């Protein structure tokens, strides 16, 4: 069995994991696993002679598991597991024996809980063929005390996974006291759904690296390392002189990597935005994971190393500094730097001194790692209202701290204990290491500072003078710095090296002033798809974490994609007349694209319209009469999103800040002159909600007033999606269910809960609900589903998915990470006006209506006239099949001995699981013919729209 990561614990902690006999039990029982459950001994009934449950092992700080003589309880069988964790500094739990899984398959993990109090964090490790962890999924549960209840969550096995190891685990930072029983893990298989899934590939891809690392191998080869952020991320090591890629490796389960640090032994440590920590060896060209979410921290912002080789990391959401000693393989938790700040956003290391920049209230802290003492360095009075100290650098006795959003670098003298200078319009991310320069004809001690809009200045540490230098990143941020001896002419001695977010490396020599740049061969990766929307043309548009930025347009007829260069991270979009209106992060910008004209970034769409008023992410859109209604998330560290009304023709924008106090508008719908909105309790990252439940409101644009506000589903944090049906009834969706509201009374008339997922980790986007051809189609909790509104019965079509859009042909689009998929619903069987079975001799002409051939043999040609329809199931036709202007032609599990020609059909064309002994030709049909995922056998050539069937 592969054990989870072991973290040395500074002091012993108390905790109990005990098996309890049921008070109703009369004897031991060997409970068999329920169908579909992969776990052995899922109910803890089987034990060894030491009282240990078979097929389970203690993990982390857990004590040995033993039977308790106390009275107990069980939800299944005769025994249950008691977890008593009274420490907020360690976690306790059991790990099951690994079970086989299939990458890409959706799995469900469930347990029965009866807790007196506290929190459980059920976790699943995914392992590769070598037993190495390639992914991890978890959720947080805080059950109501006093009774048994069942909880579950779903996940998708990542690429490379061959086994899963479920854990019953209490988190490091929380306590727990309760019973666990009937643990379940198995494949979540959707019921047989009518339709077929098609992969449309990765419409948005490229390379964007949040940071970069630098080193040399033993032969002196200069190496740069970057991680292309995406889904999944890809690590590359490249030659800094030639740009040649030396190696690449996929990093599963992570989308971004900011933190890099090089130790004196030339090893590069990097930590991802998903909590994974790796070590790169430049001699062996290997990447090794050394930790996963140490001390529960799940997002790493920056890293640095001292001369002793100790590595320090700045984290979120604990706002902590963590230390790692490669010699002892031990971690230290130096704690939260500023109480209330979830972000330790930046750090700079100088021996035992670590300077830490924080947010979402800007802060600068000095940490003495030898004594563990922290001292807050107060920012200049005029900048205390900033959100972040986004970057920190140290050079000798000078500290550089860039605050945002002002983008001002404040210069602090350690010896004077005072702020001594400012550098405005600095782009970040850091200033360079200090180097001795002589390119100006004067010997100076200087650091380089990238500037907004382009250019670079050198800052003299002694005189505080600044001058322009030859290197220019074009206004881009410097993604890490290093001092390297580059073996090139005109680059004597040590040179400064940095990179941009496109893995382009720049070198500047402080003696000659020579500069060069090389575009590296770092491996690109598909970018995570952030949003999907349907345009006025009925095509689907996809927005993502693109670099260079843009929106992908998907042709509904062919499924082909085109990347339209322009807007960056698109949070949501909506069709309004002939316009597509999209909102992007950061800065709350709105773009208007006229789909009747060619895309020309900067002209169509023109320059963006900024919401302002402290808004950062436009996440909810609705076409509302003459305007587009927009709901937005505020900046980091703030609550209270705005409702904005945009006139796309004039560009006029009306903003109503914090329409619903301390809540963000997550969903919008419009009908009969009123805007309907759903809210969530979460605001910008880095702040805690002050409310408990999502609200439903009605806004009257004429009076500019909220005319109704209520809680449709008590206990749910978000109202994530809204839509109207054909009868004017309003439907809404939460993380776990669907509800119907009568707009006349605003009363909830129907409600159904389908799932039981933790809502707190899902911010803002990816959930959708549509009324489509008499059916509710939606996506939440990772499921694509349809709901029959009459019975409220749900049919799950796919699992492990995000986002949803529907094209003009009625196909559903969704994504898994950076891959886009299309679900083509099976065409419903038309109502038959006439049905033939048995054998028919001679030709058949269908002049009107719907003719159905079921288990029928036609010994002659068949023709379908304009407006008529033919549906063949398990039949045969001896002769040609010809359709000209038909409504629909559907051929399933059948055989045609002659040619087939289908032209100009106005409805669906289906040729599925069938044999055509002659040629197959389809032209001019309104919908792309489909095989519904079941291959055909075609004896002759396939032409036109049927070329791929």
TrEMBL record:
Residues 1-24 form the signal peptide. The keyword Signal applies. Residues 921-949 are annotated as: Disordered. It comes from the Bacteria. Keywords: Signal. Transmembrane segments: none annotated. This is CBM-cenC domain-containing protein. It comes from Georgenia halophila. The lineage of its organism: Bacteria, Bacillati, Actinomycetota, Actinomycetes, Micrococcales.
């Amino acid at each position: 069995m592969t054990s989870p990561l072991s973290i040395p614990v500074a002091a012993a902690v108390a905790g109990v994991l005990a098996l309890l006999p049921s008070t109703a039990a009369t004897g031991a029982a060997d409970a068999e696993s329920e169908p579909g459950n992969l776990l052995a001994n899922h109910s803890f009934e089987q034990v060894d002679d030491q009282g240990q449950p078979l097929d389970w092992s203690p993990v982390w700080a857990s004590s040995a598991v033993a039977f308790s003589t106390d009275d107990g309880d069980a939800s299944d069988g005769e025994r249950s597991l008691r977890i008593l964790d009274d420490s907020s500094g360690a976690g306790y739990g059991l790990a099951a024996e690994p079970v086989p899984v299939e990458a890409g398959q959706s799995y469900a993990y469930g347990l029965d809980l009866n807790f007196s109090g506290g929190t459980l964090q059920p976790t699943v490790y995914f392992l590769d063929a070598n037993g190495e962890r390639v992914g991890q999924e978890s959720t947080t549960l805080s059950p109501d005390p006093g009774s048994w209840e069942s909880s579950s969550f779903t996940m998708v096995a990542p690429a490379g996974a061959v086994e899963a190891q479920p854990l019953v685990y209490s988190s490091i930072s929380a306590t727990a006291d309760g019973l666990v029983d009937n643990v379940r893990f198995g494949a979540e298989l959707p019921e047989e759904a009518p339709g077929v899934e098609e992969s449309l590939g990765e419409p948005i891809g490229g390379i964007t690296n949040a940071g970069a690392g630098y080193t040399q191998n033993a032969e002196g080869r200069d190496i740069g390392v970057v991680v292309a952020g995406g889904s999944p991320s890809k690590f590359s090591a490249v030659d800094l002189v030639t740009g040649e890629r030396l190696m690449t490796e996929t990093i599963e389960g992570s989308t971004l990597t900011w933190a890099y640090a090089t130790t004196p032994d030339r090893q590069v440590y990097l930590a991802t935005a998903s909590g994974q920590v790796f070590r790169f060896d430049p001699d062996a060209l290997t990447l090794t994971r050394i930790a996963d979410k140490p001390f529960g921290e799940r997002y790493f912002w920056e890293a640095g190393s001292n001369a002793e080789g100790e590595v320090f990391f700045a984290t979120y959401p604990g706002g902590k500094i963590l230390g790692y000693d490669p010699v002892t393989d031990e971690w230290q938790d130096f704690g939260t730097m500023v109480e209330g700040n979830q972000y330790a956003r930046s750090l700079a290391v100088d021996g035992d001194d670590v300077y830490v920049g924080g947010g979402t209230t800007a802060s600068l802290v000095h940490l003495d790692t030898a004594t563990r003492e922290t001292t807050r360095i107060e920012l200049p009075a005029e900048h205390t209202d900033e959100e972040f100290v986004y970057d920190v650098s140290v050079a000798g006795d000078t500290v550089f701290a860039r605050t945002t959003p002002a983008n001002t670098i404040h210069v602090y003298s350690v010896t004077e204990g005072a702020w001594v200078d400012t550098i405005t319009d600095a782009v970040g991310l850091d200033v360079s290491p200090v180097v001795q320069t002589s390119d100006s004809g004067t010997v100076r001690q200087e650091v380089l500072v990238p500037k907004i809009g382009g250019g670079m200045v050198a800052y003299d540490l002694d005189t505080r003078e600044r001058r322009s230098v030859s290197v220019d990143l074009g206004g881009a941020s410097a993604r890490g710095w290093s001092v390297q001896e580059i073996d090139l002419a005109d680059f004597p001695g040590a040179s400064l090296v940095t990179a941009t977010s496109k893995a382009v490396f720049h070198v500047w020599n402080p003696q000659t002033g020579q500069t060069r740049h090389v575009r590296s061969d770092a491996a690109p990766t598909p970018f995570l798809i952030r949003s999907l929307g349907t345009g006025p043309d009925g095509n689907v548009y996809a927005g993502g974490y693109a670099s260079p930025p843009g929106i992908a347009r998907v042709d509904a007829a062919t499924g082909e994609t085109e990347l339209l260069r322009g807007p960056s991270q698109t949070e949501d979009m909506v069709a309004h007349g002939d316009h597509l209106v999209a909102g992007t992060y950061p800065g709350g910008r709105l773009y208007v694209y006229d789909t009747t004209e060619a895309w020309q970034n900067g002209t169509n769409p023109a320059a963006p319209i900024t919401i302002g008023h402290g808004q950062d992410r436009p996440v909810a859109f609705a076409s509302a009469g003459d305007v587009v209604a927009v709901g937005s998330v505020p900046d980091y560290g703030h609550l209270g999103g705005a409702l904005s009304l945009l006139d796309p023709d004039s560009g006029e924008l009306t903003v109503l800040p914090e329409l619903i106090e301390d809540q963000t508008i997550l969903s919008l719908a419009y009908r009969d002159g009123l805007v309907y909105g759903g809210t969530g309790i979460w605001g910008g990252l880095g702040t805690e909600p002050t409310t408990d439940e999502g609200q439903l409101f009605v806004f009257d644009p004429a009076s500019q007033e909220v005319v109704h506000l209520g809680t449709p589903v008590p206990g749910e944090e978000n109202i994530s999606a809204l839509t109207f049906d054909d009868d004017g009834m309003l439907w809404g969706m939460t993380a776990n269910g669907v509800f119907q509201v009568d707009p006349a009374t605003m009363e909830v008339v129907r409600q159904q809960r389908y799932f039981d997922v933790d809502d707190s980790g899902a911010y803002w986007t990816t959930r959708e609900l549509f009324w489509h051809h008499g059916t509710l189609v939606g996506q939440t909790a990772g499921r694509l589903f349809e709901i029959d509104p009459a019975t409220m019965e749900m049919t799950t079509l796919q699992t492990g998915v995000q986002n949803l859009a529907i094209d003009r042909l009625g196909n559903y689009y969704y994504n898994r990470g950076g891959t886009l998929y299309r679900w083509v619903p099976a065409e419903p069987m038309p109502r038959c006006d006439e049905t033939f079975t048995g054998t028919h001799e001679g030709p058949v002409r269908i002049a009107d209506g719907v003719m159905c051939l079921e288990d029928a043999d036609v010994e002659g040609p068949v023709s379908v006239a304009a407006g008529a329809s033919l549906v063949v199931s398990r039949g045969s036709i001896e002769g040609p099949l010809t359709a000209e202007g038909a409504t629909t032609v559907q051929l399933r599990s059948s055989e045609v001995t002659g040619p087939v020609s289908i032209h100009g059909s106005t409805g669906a064309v289906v040729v599925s699981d069938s044999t055509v002994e002659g040629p197959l030709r389809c032209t001019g049909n309104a919908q792309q013919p489909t095989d519904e995922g079941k291959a055909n056998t075609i004896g002759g050539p396939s032409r036109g729209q049927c070329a791929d069937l």
